[in-house]
Amino acid sequence: xxxxxxxxxxxxxxxxxxxxxxxxxxxxxxxxxxxxxxxxxxxxxxxxxxxxxxxxxxxxxxxxxxxxxxxxxxxxxxxxxxxxxxxxxxxxxxxxxxxxxxxxxxxxxxxxxxxxxxxxxxxxxxxxxxxxxxxxxxxxxxxxxxxxxxxxxxxxxxxxxxxxxxxxxxxxxxxxxxxxxxxxxxxxxxxxxxxxxxxxxxxxxxxxxxxxxxxxxxxxxxxxxxxxxxxxxxxxxxxxxxxxxxxxxxxxxxxxxxxxxxxxxxxxxxxxxxxxxxxxxxxxxxxxxxxxxxxxxxxxxxxxxxxxxxxxxxxxxxxxxxxxxxxxxxxxxxxxxxxxxxxxxxxxxxxxxxxxxxxxxxxxxxxxxxxxxxxxxxxxxxxxxxxxxxxxxxxxxxxxxxxxxxxxxxxxxxxxxxxxxxxxxxxxxxxxxxxxxxxxxxxxxxxxxxxxxxxxxxxxxxxxxxxxxxxxxxxxxxxxxxxxxxxxxxxxxxxxxxxxxxxxxxxxxxxxxxxxxxxxxxxxxxxxxxxxxxxxxxxxxxxxxxxxxxxxxxxxxxxxxxxxxxxxxxxxxxxxxxxxxxxxxxxxxxxxxxxxxxxxxxxxxx
Length: 606
Prior knowledge:
- The chain is mainly alpha-helical and about 600 residues long.
- It has helices at about 1-30, 30-40, 45-55, 60-70, 75-95, 110-120, 135-150, 160-170, 170-175, 175-185, 190-210, 220, 240-265, 270-295, 300-315, 315-325, 330-345, 350-355, 370-375, 375-385, 385-400, 405-415, 420-430, 445-455, 465-475, 485-495, 500-510, 520-530, 545-560, 570-580, 585-590, and strands spanning about 230, 235.
- The N and C termini lie far apart (about 80 Å).
């Protein structure tokens, strides 16, 4: 029996070590997600924000969670705090449920549910309105377990008092107060006290709804604090799965714990029972790992978008371009930010198509529709000098998702750009109350942004600011006398694959850049439109012989590959490796422009 006891303990420790290693790895590959969680989560220091949350049940937990989320400004610190909270949940849970030896591994299942809830959010991170989501559930569950531990330390005849306490603390714990009643009721055999507790549970939400929360929908009070992901346009059911499983598992843990305690109490348990005692730990660890991996959202573009937005917010354009060089299938948001980085680094028309302008759709497991508008539109409009649009989009997004650090920083930068020092101080004061933002100040407005701000009227259009709107709008900048604006107009005319607008933009670009070298991608577009889109009033410009020779090879290669029965998509994929860095490939095979129509091909090869 001693050897078997040691074997069971060794298996438990190995299982715990494996699960802990898994949690550390998952948090490590999601560090950028944690930073974005802080950057897009609202926490405003002061009584208005506090009272707003406290006006709803579960508000205190959300307030605590919102503050802890701001610590994720240092992602490693945020991940460490999560690990500490989950370690406490494991320890307190074993005490509250009185789990002995290998049965303690059952507490890995709630931890797995909470871990899955952190890494399965996906693009909801940009539009979710749940305050303090990243920590509030873990903190609420830990408080519930502490209460359960305290209740289990008292005589059973006092359980009725604890049921009444659960009713009273419902405004603080929300749905965890109901879970507390269920867990306490199932820790032992059901008696009249437990039935009375369950009876109180049924009417708890109704009592509080009529007395204190009549201004809220009854459905929002019944399961207060239970995360639901709904917008007027989108709904996600699968994101609530970890919390439903958390509730079910928490109720069954005391039942399973009692059963395993009876088995271990036998002097001579059967072979099956011995295997259950020994195998419980690896089974729970494996179940937690499989559950988390099944629900986790992990996509390279998802992470690279976050990194690009983070670096672009800090004007770290070299880091943005490094990501662009590594990522061969960017999203439209990444394409816009990459082109802004090239604008600031001075290689826009020589490297833009080398780094790729063929945007792919984002990977999203549900029906959520997220675009540049939700991810980085204020940042993009700011860098193009369109301050009124940037400010409007900041407020529209912040009103829905909250005035998070991302929006406060962008509002401060926009206020500095338009010269409103009072607004700059207002936004920076809000940021200075957040952890790690005590000395934050907006970066100086760059000369290129100042130039773009003066080269055209910055008017609010009142139309939806989609990618196509931005592409079409910038391609009309050819009338400006700004070198920066003429470069942008030429690029976006090329992205539109609009030959007429290209010739107009090219003439103006050449006029403003007479003493400069003809950029590579402009040469490629010039050769293509001279050859395939003959129009009047063209201009004659010298191009490099090597570029022209490659253009001829491009068409010769396409003629060889393009045979009856071969789709244009297949031809494009076959030619991508050799010619994917050219404007010709983008014009013929790319999605134009930046998912405006989501179609492949254009009138040149029709």
